[in-house]
Amino acid sequence: MTHVLDDPVWAALAGAHHHLGRFAGDAARYPSDVAPFAALRPGAGGHALDDLATITEPGAVVATVGADVRPSDEWEPLDVFAGVQLVDTALTTAPDPEAVRLGPADVDEMLDLVDRTEPGPFRRRTIELGTYLGIRREGRLVAMGGERFHPPGWTEISAVCTDPAYRGQGLATRIVRAVADGIKARGETPFLHASADNTTALRLYKAIGFSLRREVAITVLERRA
Description:
Radius of gyration: 17 Å
Largest sheet: 8 strands, mixed
Shape: globular
């Protein structure tokens, strides 16, 4: 039996993020300025990649999370990354007195912080996926994190990052706890993804109450011209 987290991108686009998605047959994707992620309907055949090609402009790059992707004339495989999926099993959550909700007016600052810290894909409209919180020092955004995929009953915590000058102060942990507090208040369970070789992040997440659920392959594809 499959679990909703086995393909969180499809589950999110079929549900809470349906209004953001683009769809064709057995394929779905976010617009490029929201997120680079795409999904194939679980159990669909090889034609699903052809369906995805019809809603992806030539030269565009997409990523799938845990999908069974086979070679196709329409797609150029670029890379496969080893990732892990972790779920909350013992996380203590709490609102943070310094964390403020970030909005459209903060996007330029958020993109700048992402460029300097590289927590993973973050685009100009990524903020539309859920709630994002930030911490400022002397008016400058120095830490942030928020919500990305929303499969039924779950919400992913993503884009957790801290300005290098402010690391070691526990800001990332505070952001995760605060974002998770809002998730749990809705009766949902936090989960997240991380690179399998990001030992620092994995050590932190496990220490504060996340447990490994499974390993995932993140496949990056380019739509052939």
